[in-house]
Amino acid sequence: MALPKVLGIETEYGITSGSPDVDPISTSTQLVTAYAVGLAHHIKWDFHDESPGRDQRGSARPGSLAPMVETHLANAVLTNGARFYVDHAHPEYSSPEVASPLEAVLYDAAGEEVLRRAMAAATERFPDSPPIVVYKNNSDSKGNSYGTHENYLLSREIDFDGVVAGIVPHLVTRQLYCGAGKVGWETPNVPEPVGFQISQRAEFFEELLGLETTVKRPIINTRDEPHADSSRYRRLHVIIGDANRSQVATFLKLGTTAILLAMVEDGVTHQGLSLADPVAAHRAISVDPDLQGTVELANGRSISALEIQIGLFEAATKYVQAEGAAFLGDESQASLVLGYWEAALEGLESNPESLSDTVDWIAKRRLLEAYADRNGLGPLDPRLRAMDLQYHDLRPERSLSDRLGLVELVGRDEILTAVTEPPISTRAWFRGKCLARFPENVVTANWDSLVFDLGVDPLRRIPMMDPLRGTKALTGGLLEEVRSASELVDRLGA
Amino acid sequence: MAEREQISKPHSTRSDEAEAQAATGSEAAAERAEKLKADLDGLLDEIDEVLEDNAEEFVRSYVQKGGE
Lengths: 494, 68
Description:
- The structure holds two protein chains of two kinds.
- By secondary structure, chain A is α+β, with helices and mostly antiparallel strands.
- Chain A is 37% helix and 15% strand.
- Chain A folds into two domains: 409 residues, Creatine Kinase, Chain A, domain 2 (2-Layer Sandwich), CATH 3.30.590; 69 residues, no CATH class.
- In chain A, a hairpin with a 5-residue loop joins strand 4 and strand 5.
- In chain A, helix 2 crosses helix 5 and helix 3 runs antiparallel to helix 5.
- Chain A is globular.
- The two termini of chain A are 32 Å apart.
- Chain B is an all-alpha fold.
- Chain B has a domain of 28 residues.
- Chain B is 62% helix and 0% strand.
- Chain B starts with 15 loop residues before the first helix and ends in a 7-residue tail after the last helix.
- The chains are: A alpha+beta, B mainly alpha.
- Chains A and B meet through strand 2, helix 7, helix 8, helix 9 and helix 10 of A and helix 1 and helix 2 of B.
């Protein structure tokens, strides 16, 4: 029986401030700080128990670099359970943990709103500096990429090799409906010069497996850092995805991947879809937006990316029909995922343009091609590159994606609520509610604990090692009853 | 569920419920395609006002450090 698929999305945003010479760490810090000081509380992140160098494959990997954790930069925990901070040279929003793909869409959209508010707060706080602008994309078109990472809760019991075999064909081909699209290419890795690519990220991936995220990026990141009880859980850290402006694309990205991971947990395999060379296939698919090419399977057969996706979709449909989909929160989520998945595959097969309100790369390409036709521009014209960037601009007055009528799965009011209210379905609820309720007492927070200062030594740490506890159903009554942080900690027996 | 795209080749594994939605989906999809086309023309008319003034300079100066 597959575990509930607790999910989250971490987004590093592109950032500019007038001139490329301005230090992006400073502007990112200004942005996060401007937002954080406007909050009623300002809680620091706690790095206790972080271990990004641990490997899912078990043994220590000599020579593999553990990512740096920069503890001196701006860091805030939000009452919606998210973390908003400076990671390397980018502002990053890590959504709270949720228990369904639709909630993941909601808290990803809430993150966009946090960034919009942070831009406004920075302008107000630093009126003499050039305005800071953020972009929800993954590359600067000059060979620099930054990530949008997904997280999925898995059982510790499953064999990691099974995860690799089960999910690689999907991670390589899901770009057909999850790709954000981009003009041109920017590394020597592309198989051929191309006017438009499906994926922003594909050409940056060079390995099948590895711990890295900044160089020699792997299709499967093997970081073994569950942020939960490591005797029971794994967390699959997926670094291959593009940042999406389409809510349907985000929903499909999380939903399809969660179903296929549940199949791995339940030992359901899809035969005959293993790729001969996943890294090469990933890049080849990205440079083929007309969907004309094929890739080679391990069994020697040539097959299109779309055929691989149809095979995965059919296996997933059979699995959900046989086993149900309690792991996705509720059955309606599975119907919605399978419905949009099938619609995407049918659209790709018969009329890709029909997906121009759900699939980012198709929406972007259609707009750029129409503009190029009208103005007689070549495929790599700077005006098209500017439009490519502005597709991802989060400012309403400049955003192109906001003007394209993309289908919305969550309403504006829901999004605004989710900027401050945590999801009820995971421990993020307890984290967010404690921050809102006891801002004076919570001194630090991280994914799996809260530390309280109750006015007497020592500080008290509340462990939250199970992402599925700390929900509203389990702790809502308690939080309503207690009159103080001391009473809360006492009642929890910490 | 939101409107569905036109669906021409049902897969054998599709559920009855999805079949029913597909039948009503193609009309809605045609209507939506019309609307999307009109919307795109309207957007192209106004896009030069939304685009950054000097595209070449804007693109050149968009430089990021790597992340992750």
